[in-house]
Amino acid sequence: xxxxxxxTAPGDLAPTGHGSAIRSAEVLVTSxxxxxxxxxxxxxxxxVGLGDATLNGRxxxxxxxxxxxxxxxxxxxxxxxxxDTWQFLYRSAYxxxxxxxxxxxxxxxxxxxxxxxxxxxxxxxxxxGGASRxxxxxxxxxxxxxxxxxxxxxxxxxxxxxxxxxxQTSVPGIDAxxxxxxxxxxxxxxxxxxAQRAPLPAEEDWDTRAYLRHIPTVFEAVRSEFGPEVxxxxxxxxRMTPIQAARLGKDLEPYDLFxxxxxxxxxxxxxxxxxxxxTTTPLAIGEVFNTVWDYQTLVREQLVDYVRSAVTHTGGIxxxxxxxxxxxxxxIKSGIHGPTDISPVGMAAALHLDLAIxxxxxxxxxxxxxxxxEVFRQTFTFEDGYLHxxxxxxxxxxxxxxxxARYPYAxxxxxxxxxxxxxxxxx
Length: 427
Prior knowledge:
By secondary structure, the chain is an alpha/beta fold. It has two domains: 21-123, Enolase-like, N-terminal domain (Enolase-like, domain 1); 127-391, TIM Barrel. The protein has 13 helices and 18 strands.
């Protein structure tokens, strides 16, 4: 992607500090273990900031939005005007919101916070108010085609240090189910990279009634094997109607879940009223949300317990901090989205925010592969079940151009579901 060098800043916002004008803005696309889009901003005095702009399965749409529409607006602007730049990019486009726009804005926002923290000479979380805790509790993804395989996966995650475990399992009669690592994939472990590198998305099958019958028996077995203390999570991945979600939440109450995630498509926020009426199982929602408007009813009516948005897809640190402050008024906590379609840049941004906010809940953590770690050099750590962003100035992530060049973009799609009668269903 090209780098632009204008003579003046758009809107005549001249830099207020020596050398703080944005000199270059580069949109970097690489595909080590999966496709990533990264924005790299450099100021006149040579300070570099990184932002994650990855939108799984639609990566090039954000890359184009950035390079064709946003980069020309950034060059010459004062890198320290983070809030002003956020509002300018959000409001000046007129066509607001949506995953492409908000991922692009997020990349700019995080890169600017990275720059500001480096100039300040401190890790980013210090600029967000300092640490509110010593570590960030993380949960890992255990799965299996049957109970013995699932139990092995849970034990393996516990040996890695995870104290909290998400449980996903195959369902009798369904050939392929989201999140089950043991199922084959053209690109490796299923829960590591479900986006398959192919010209068309893979088709999977789905049967809600079979799922609803099976899942409570799985959690009964897991609790019997691992006891009552382990925090257990489960992801319904938007595949249930509200009344089906209410039934599952009620059926899972004896097994004391930490949360039931994405039990029903929540674009219809009022649907969660029905779920809430029938179950006390905690609910987590929001990984496909992009702005505070997606949460208005859910938060105000206390219909969820955890906010699942990613820094990368929700307008960056500035915007997600505002959402979480709103949620905190209703004792709703964070559960920031952190799978491998969030780059190490986006993950580091989440960790700095996690450490600073008061209403932290838990952090999703899927470990990236060796090739991704070669491209994105990280300083954040995972030890004894807890993450920490580290003490390096800024985000604590650097981008290796030479390594990235070895992994060019490869077209990839997430799978999709069909019911037994051929109807396309939520994946």
